[in-house]
Structure formats: structure tokens, C-alpha cells
Amino acid sequence: MVRGIFLAVLMAVLPVFSAEEIVVLTETPVAEFTLPDGSVLKNAFVFRRSAEGLMVVHDDGQYFLNFKLMPDEWRMAYGVSQDLERVDVAAGKRFDQYLVFPVLERIEGLPHPTVAFLESERYDGSADGLLLAACAMQSLLDGKLDKAVRLQAILDERFPDAGVQRIEAFYAACETCGGKGAYTNACPECGGSGTCPRCAGVGERKTDMSDDKTIHCTTCRGTGKCLKCQGTGKRVFQCIPCKGKGKSLGYDAVRSELKLVADRLHTQCEALKSTR
């Protein structure tokens, strides 16, 4: 019932809006986004884009913005043609052979019409080298190292001349551990003394029942040494920032290179569109 009322209102106000007045939603929240019926969504952003429209998330929940029900100006602003049968975003999706469509849709700075074109049957795969490189970098930013490594392997095998940086180039020696993946510090068990904290290095301790009798220290097995550090007073710990890998990801470098690759990908897609 509510949806029906909204559609009626929407159709009534189609001529009112111009493309210049439309705030195009992306993955970056917009403080206040006004719908054609005048209602306002707080902190709205595009959560998912499909051939039918946009799933918009806002403070009060979710809202689906259907392309077919948008005013023509809105369709233009979102890169949707008036003829929805020929619209990039509404065209049948091609087979996602690399399993990258969800990653592709998260790349900041890559226009939605370009994403839709890359996912559509109109795209012939000629820019797959750039597409895979961009998705590999986005996977790094997403913390999906396994996926980034898989995409890099495909790049190496199928598109060795893509002219993009390998994902290894974005890693540098961890500043915390100097690239070792671990660091040495005082043993917390003995405080760095190397002696058994239970018997103070004697190897024997007084019993709990009588102060004038001693027993073999079971904590250090009579050695008087701290068993945690084997009496050295030092212990080796895994580096937390790099998780023992010795290298850390340069996120700023990834974002900078991803922007360049995304721009190249967009330019190539625009050239492909013009020839079709």
C-alpha cells in the first residue's frame, strides 16, 4: 500500500527534477538525500547496484530505488538510458568468470556506468588486465589477501603485459619488527630475571604446611630457571602489526595506484563503448 502511494506520487513529479539538482549517491554517505516524493533519507549511500536499481541504506533502514520508476533526468544522472532495454546497467550480465563483480562494485572512483558496462554482455573482455589489477588492489584494501593473490596469479598467467604493479610492490618491511616478523623482549613470566618466579631461582621451596621443610620446586623442576624463557630472561614474540609476516601493506600506495588503474579502465571502457 505504502509503495503504491509512493509510486503514484513519484510519477506525478517526474518533470519537476533536473539532473543538476540530483545528488548521485555512491558508497560515500550523503547527509540528506531527497527522494522525488520529498521524503528525506539521512546518511544514505548505495549498498548494492543491480540491473533493476539501487539498494540504498540509510539511518532508518533500506530503500530500493528502481531505475524504471525514476524520472528521465534521474536516469541520466545515474548513467541510465531512457531506453532501458539498451541500458548498460539493465543489460544481461555476462558470466563472472573471475568472480570479481562484487569487488568491482566497491572500487571507489570507478563510475557506475563503467561498472555496469564491464558486467554487461556488451563488454568483450579486452580490458580484463586492468579489471583484474583493479580488483586485486581493492581486495588488498578489503583485507582479502587470498583473493588478491588469486587475481595476481591470473594476471601473471593471462595478462603479463598489463602494465600494472604487482601486489607485492605495495608491501614494505614492517617498521615495528624491521621485517623480521618477531621481536625480542623481557620475559613477562620472570620479569627478565631468568629465574623461576616460584622459588626465586633456588630450585626448592618451602611447603605450604610447614615453614621448616622444603620440597623440590615443581614449577621449574628443580632447575631454578624460568622455563618460559629457559633462563635467558628474554622471549621472542610475534609482531602484532604485521602478524608475523615481516611486511606491512602500504594502504596509501594501494589507493593511489588503484585510482590510476581505475581511470585507465574507465577511459578504455569509454573507447570501447564508442566503437560499438
Gross geometry: elongated
Mean pLDDT over all positions: 82
Helix content: 25-40%
Radius of gyration: 30 Å
User: How would you spell out the order of helices and strands?
Assistant: HEEEEHHHHHEEEEEEH
Question: Class by helix and strand content?
Answer: alpha+beta
| Amino-to-carboxy terminus distance | 43 Å
Low-confidence stretches: 1-20, 82-91
Beta-strand content = 15-25%
Please outline the major beta sheet.
Answer: 4 strands, antiparallel
Strand line-up across the major sheet = 1-2-3-4
Would you summarize the structure shown here?
By secondary structure, this protein is of the alpha+beta class. The protein has 7 helices and 10 strands.
What does this structure look like?
- The protein is of the alpha+beta class and 276 residues long.
- It contains seven helices and ten strands.
- The protein has a four-stranded antiparallel sheet, with no helix packed on it. The chain has a two-stranded antiparallel ribbon with strand order 5-10.
- Helix 5 packs antiparallel against helix 6 and helix 5 packs antiparallel against helix 7.
- The longest helix is centred in the C-terminal third of the chain and has 24 residues.
- The chain is elongated, with a radius of gyration of 30 Å.
- The N terminus is likely disordered.
